[in-house]
Amino acid sequence: MEAVVLKAFGEPENLEHQTVADPVAGPGEVLLEVRACGVCFHDVINRRGSLPRTSVPAILGHEAAGEVVAVGPDVEGWSVGDRAATLQRLHCGACSHCGRGRNSLCKDDTRFFGEEIPGGYAELMAAPVAGLGRIPEAIGWPEAATACCTSGTAVHVVRTRGRVEKGETILITGASGGVGMQAVQLARHDGARVVAVTSSETKAAALSEAGAHDVIVAPELEFARRVREITNGEGVDVAIEIVGSATFEQSMRALAPGGRLVVVGNLETRSVALNPGLVIVKELEILGAYATTKKELQEALELIGRGVLRPWIAGVLPLRQAWRAHQLLEERAVAGRLVLAAES
Ligand SMILES: [Zn+2]
Ligand SMILES: [Zn+2]
Q1: Which ligand gives the minimal distance to the CA of 294?
Q2: Nearest-angstrom CA–CA distance, 243 and 116
Q3: Same domain for 145 and 251?
Q4: Are residues 244 and 208 in the same domain?
Q5: pTM, rounded to two decimals
Q6: Quick check: is 156 in a domain?
Q7: Chosen domain end from 288, 307, 332
Q8: How far is the CA of 149 from the centre of ligand 1 (A)?
Q9: Cα 23 to middle of ligand 2, angstroms
Q10: 7 C-alpha to ligand 1 centroid (Å)
Q11: How close is the Cα of 226 to the center of ligand 1, in Å?
């Protein structure tokens, strides 16, 4: 098959287009003919060599969607012709975390597509069915491929972890990114008042169009005062922290008493200073959010199918140009998600 192989960690040019042996579906796996694979910033970090579980040569890509072309042993419920999209990582399905539906906390099967499991930068991939969701008919391949990492994460953040309710006010930092745009749409759909923060004026219109009631353009990343002004001094019930350390303190200050801060991104991977007194007197909740569960992926695909969530596909590049997609991401030249597709 045709595949893009990361020969060695480092530059985008290390992503080489090659012909390699076809994978075979093992026990618990199906063979997918990959129709689209999203290129995520996580892939860039992986390519640079910052993810310890990846060993080269590797086939990257955890945002794959494809058609089942063969079914391995011990697989129930999947047939040739089914359409499937990947979760980011697997889970065992049997431990106490999995039993409570918290698949992203499972420690018994933590394998990640594109790390331990060869990923979607290829024509074919052998995928454990524990890591797959079913794609409804109405959804195209690029939209299905990116569902998990953008729409699915938004479901995890807004609904599962943030418990956002109708009538609440929600603040979203880094709102113009892949997860942010989906979170804006979902929170609006669920009846919240949405305050979106972006660092760039050029992205404000897209946020309003996606459903944000208020857009704060904060190139200096200072927005807490403005949030207080537009909420009559109250602050917000929920803050979704997609940027992380750089905006954490401002998000904390923007919270109303009893507010919830959901941390889902930390772009600069730095630590933050925290005043416990603020958490005590305002009875704040600080919640982490990691990955997407199988149920949430299915929920996200259904929301896309109904038109509630509109994935933002920046463009489709041929598989052999994976290196170029990585370059564009590193140049921050992409709004929305880039997707790879094999040409044959
Ligand atoms: Zn991703
Ligand atoms: Zn488990």
Answers
A1: 2
A2: 27
A3: no
A4: yes
A5: 0.92
A6: no
A7: 288
A8: 5
A9: 26
A10: 21
A11: 32
Domain limits for position 78: 2-149+292-341
Q: Is 9 a member of any domain?
A: yes
**Residue 157 maps to a domain:** no
Long-range CB contacts for residues 43-48, cutoff 8 Å, separation at least 24? 43/114, 43/326, 43/329, 44/326, 44/329, 44/330, 46/6, 46/114, 46/115, 47/6, 47/9, 47/10, 47/12, 47/14, 47/15, 47/326, 48/9, 48/10
Cα separation of 124 and 111, whole Å?
18
| Ligand 1 centre distance from Cα of residue 234 (Å) | 35
Taking the centre of ligand 1 as the mean of its atom positions, its distance from the CA of residue 280, in whole angstroms, is 35
Tokens read off for 301: 């695909």
Q: How far is the CA of 115 from the centre of ligand 1 (A)?
A: 12
* Closest ligand relative to 110 C-alpha: 2
Ligand 1 center–CA 193 separation, angstroms:
27
pLDDT tens digits, residue range 54-108?
999 999 999 999 999 999 999 999 999 999 999 989 999 999 999 999 998 999 9
pLDDT band at 178 (very low <50, low <70, confident <90, very high): confident
User: Do both 26 and 106 map to the same domain?
Assistant: yes
Do 67 and 179 lie in one domain? The reply is: no
